[in-house]
Amino acid sequence: MKFIPLIGRVLFSAMFIMFGIGHFTDGQAMIDGGMVPSFLPFPMLIVIATGVVLVLGGVAVLVGYRTKQAALGLAVFLLATTFLTWAPMLSTGGQQAMTMFMKDMSLAGAALLLSHFGAGPMSLDAKQSGE
């Protein structure tokens, strides 16, 4: 059973790391695809900054370092993304917008659970606290 939180962290963090790297490798496509709201200035800077947040948060959760803080940061990011990007598209974006909206809401819920319960055993947090 001690492996369950580790497996959960791996599965949860993989998406953030992968998508965060995508912010660096294909940032213009994110801007062109409408993932940065048009009212925000400096869209490429936003794409790069959010890429940094995703990679750092994902790696922190993966290794279980300051997991509660990292997960809370990811939850804030996910909720902002949900309401700034996907919510406005719900009336016109069809099924994909609803899918992305619900995915990010679900991931935000998981991130909030991690921010409350922490990384569990087999993490740097547990090692530092002597568990």
Estimated helix fraction? over 70%
Unreliably modeled segments? none
Number of helical segments? 6
Largest sheet: none
CA radius of gyration: 16 Å
How much strand?
under 5%
The tally of domains stands at 1
- Secondary-structure class: mainly alpha
- Total count of strands: 0
Taken in chain order, the helices and strands follow as HHHHHH
Give the termini distance in whole angstroms: 15 Å
Walk me through what this model shows.
With 131 residues, the chain is mainly α. It has one domain (3-129). The chain is 79% helix and 0% strand. It is built from six helices and no strands. Helix 1 (3-25) packs antiparallel against helix 3, helix 3 crosses helix 4 and helix 4 packs antiparallel against helix 5 (94-117). The chain is elongated, with a radius of gyration of 16 Å. The two termini are 15 Å apart.
Task: Please supply descriptive tags for the structure shown above.
elongated; 6 helices; mainly alpha; 0% strand; 131 residues
Summarize, please:
With 131 residues, this protein is an all-alpha fold. It has 6 helices and no strands.
Topology:
Blueprint: H1 3-25, H2 27-32, H3 43-63, H4 67-89, H5 94-117, H6 124-129
